[in-house]
Design a protein that fits this description.
single chain, alpha+beta, Nucleotidyltransferase, domain 5, Rossmann fold, six-stranded mixed β-sheet, 40 strands, globular
Length: 718
């Protein structure tokens, strides 16, 4: 069947071994097709060849045409791999300095070679010019570079000037001159709006070092999409879980670092509608673990080679235990699971072999690769075959996998492998298999517990498993955490699904001392313009502004849907479906949940929760609240909330009353409780602004920007 209207989103996950691609209906979010190809690292077109093959395969399925596609996004490990493997360009850092402050600026810009991984560095050369001499000095250096190739082929440049974040014009002119000469270049003010010259320059150097490689990736990917008529809708995953236009990657490839794990987290929120819980994405070699609170992933400051960058990424913890992790044995017991995987060792899983292929199976301990310890369990057969005993083999031997599961293999073959291991160790085969899964589950649950300790979620949590190996180790990890477990739909392609469903995102951060209402309004307007410029639908844009008085920074975060995909009318949920989602999020009985607020795109529900005191005496009644959007996602959950309803006709007074209730006063001045503005499907945290008057002004700006909205809701934690 061919779709009648343009409603298809395509997501592609470029992994280390395979490239997965999916086509998702934009309205119903149902899966239309999914395909897989080996990742084409060694092709002359690089990974773009595999992307083209996957796109062509999806179109060949025949359920949609190229003109039906409104969105294509792919995650990439290219930037991360380039840094890990040292596949970077040398960088010339041009400092524009003058006057008394010039000596200090020179010291800050003299970075030396920047370490990016153990034993790997970005070669950095410094040149300094006064702003008035920069144009002439840069021309002379470029001429010398062309003639002698003194700094090596493929060199990149960074231009940095103190306080260019306040006035970037001279820095930009210098960068444009270098770009016009055909060299990759990064202006430091385009990477970050913060002061901190050394950190800004270091971040710019990392960005510039991967510009040649990532520009090549962008060009080839766009060319591959163009062959099929899909280039105009091509997006690249960012490390914060959003997407950006492929042309933007040419300027800021650093924003794609760790975008692979970010795609899976995006799917957990948008596809699985996870509001609060741990998302565990299990591959063949490693597992990515993240925590989601109130429908949002948590973020951390990025670091490369121990160097802090002016960049925030999703807080995704990666551990070397997964479905393909091989078992390690010591003293007749399972010592550990991983980090070496069967994939990297080049060995087939024993459980995916036919039982007859394991005839005469004997277990031995060996080093799968040079440099590995010699305690990994391997099966050898009469026919001379070698097989790995993996965590997936353990799950198959114990029969914990459902028929048809992506990791399901031959139970008989798995049992043969563990009987052979039992003969080697003297421990019962079933006990060995249970030990293996127990160790793997403990590794995962321990990371979840650490995330919980750091972020302190207040709502009821759960575990969602994604990735091809999820059924192997995620359920026993959830058991250790004593949390409910759910297996993600289309788990084996969950990262590709996340890429297909991702939203446009952007972040603007500036150094501002004692930010005023005008500063807040200016950065909001700048973010709104940036989101529109990136192709976001105006009605879908959601902006939060945060004031950090300790760091003297002003930060705006924006998100929104691409204009072509903003309308998804047919999958809106009704009131009863929204109430069921609220009941699940609150952990309450359906009869105890009440609708408090409703508009065209969001609903707020509340309940009563009697909390008993010690020995059943005393106690108090909590009023938990949850915001459910039109698609059934619980956007915000508060364990004990106060809800204030407001109207546009009385906006100033209603906002003032609500924010006053959320504010207490102590010796240090006003203390604002965590406060959110809810309207038109938006959930905006006002308390990040820190000041009651700024919160009120910003809320008025947001509501005024949507003249069709007559009501709003303010929720704060008691």
């Amino acid at each position: 069947m061919t779709l009648d209207s343009p409603t298809v989103r395509i997501g592609i996950d470029v992994g280390g071994t395979f490239t997965h691609a999916v086509a998702v209906d934009n309205r119903s979010l149902t899966m239309l097709a999914k395909v897989c190809r080996p990742t084409t690292h060694n092709s002359k077109n690089g990974v773009a060849e595999g992307i083209w093959q996957c796109l062509d395969d999806l179109l060949a399925v025949g359920v949609f045409k190229a003109e039906d596609v409104v969105f294509v996004a792919h995650s990439t490990t290219q930037a991360t791999n380039a840094l890990l493997e040292g596949d970077v360009a040398p960088v010339t850092l041009i400092g524009m300095v003058e006057g008394v402050s010039g000596a200090q600026a020179k010291r800050e810009l003299s970075l030396g070679d920047v370490e990016i991984a153990a034993g790997r560095k970005i070669p950095v050369k410094n040149l300094f010019f006064s702003p008035s001499e920069a144009a002439q000095g840069i021309r002379a250096h470029l001429d010398e570079l062309r003639n002698s190739n003194a700094h090596g082929a493929g060199a990149s440049f960074v231009v940095a000037e103190p306080f260019s974040v306040d006035d970037p014009e001279r820095e930009k002119r210098a960068a444009e001159a270098i770009a016009d000469a055909g060299f990759p270049v990064t202006a430091s003010s385009e990477v970050s709006g913060l002061y901190g010259l050394r950190a800004r320059a270091r971040t710019s150097v990392v960005n510039a070092s991967i510009l040649p490689k990532m520009t090549d990736v962008a060009d080839k990917t766009k060319e591959a999409a163009s062959k099929l008529g899909l280039a105009p809708v091509l997006m690249i995953m960012r490390s914060d879980g959003g997407v950006m236009a492929v042309d933007n990657m040419r300027r800021s490839p650093i924003l794609t670092i760790l975008s692979g794990p970010a795609a899976g987290v995006s799917a957990a929120i948008l596809y699985e509608k996870m509001a609060n819980g741990y998302f565990v994405e299990v591959g063949g070699t490693s597992t990515d673990i993240s925590i989601i609170i109130d429908g949002k992933p948590q973020r951390k400051q990025a670091a490369v080679g121990g160097n802090i960058l002016y960049l925030k990424t999703l807080d995704v913890r990666t551990i070397g235990v997964a479905g393909g992790s091989m078992l390690r044995v010591s003293g007749g017991k399972i010592k550990d699971v991983g980090p070496r995987s069967a994939h990297i060792a080049g060995l087939p899983y024993a459980c995916f072999a036919a039982p007859e292929d394991l005839a005469g199976a004997k277990a031995k301990l060996a080093a799968p690769r040079d440099g590995d310890p010699g305690d990994y369990a391997v099966i050898e057969t009469n026919a001379g075959g070698s097989f790995a005993i993996t965590a997936t083999c353990a799950a198959n031997a114990l029969g914990t996998l459902a028929d048809g599961d992506y990791s399901s293999g031959s139970k008989e073959s798995a049992k043969i492998a563990f009987e052979a291991l039992s003969a080697l160790t003297g421990r019962p085969a079933e006990a060995l298999a249970r030990d293996a899964l127990d160790i793997a589950a403990l590794r995962i649950s321990s990371v979840c517990e650490k995330l919980g300790e750091e972020y302190k979620p207040a709502a009821a949590m759960s575990v969602i498993g994604g990735g091809g190996g999820a059924s192997v180790v995620a359920p026993p990890a959830a058991d250790k955490l004593r949390l409910p477990y759910r297996h993600a739909k289309d788990a084996e392609v969950i990262s590709a699904v996340g890429a297909a469903m991702a939203m446009l995102k952007n972040v603007i951060e500036k150094s501002v001392v004692d930010a005023t209402d005008d500063d807040v309004a200016a950065i909001r307007a700048e973010m709104h313009a940036a989101m529109i410029g990136s192709g976001a639908d105006p009605d879908s844009i959601e902006i939060e502004v945060e004031i950090d008085k300790q760091r003297n920074t002003l930060r705006a975060s924006g998100s929104g849907s691409a204009s072509l995909v903003a309308s998804r009318g047919s999958d809106k949920i009704n009131l009863e479906e929204a109430k069921r989602a609220a009941t699940a999020a609150l952990g309450a009985e359906n009869s105890d949940v009440s609708l408090i607020y409703e508009d065209s795109a969001s609903r707020v529900f509340s309940a009563k929760n009697r909390k008993k005191g010690i020995f059943g005496l005393g106690g108090k009644t909590l009023t938990p609240a949850v915001v459910v959007d039109m698609y059934g996602l619980a956007r915000l959950t508060i364990p004990d909330a106060f809800i204030v309803l407001g109207a546009r006709s009385n906006m100033a007074q209603d906002l003032s009353d609500a924010i006053s209730r959320a504010t207490t006063f102590g010796d240090g001045g006003a203390i604002v409780k965590q406060t959110y503005l809810v309207f038109a499907g938006k959930v905006i945290e006002l308390s990040k602004l820190g000041d009651p008057e700024k919160m009120k002004s910003f809320a008025e700006m947001e509501i005024s920007a949507f003249p069709g909205i007559d009501t709003f809701c303010v929720i704060f934690k008691k």
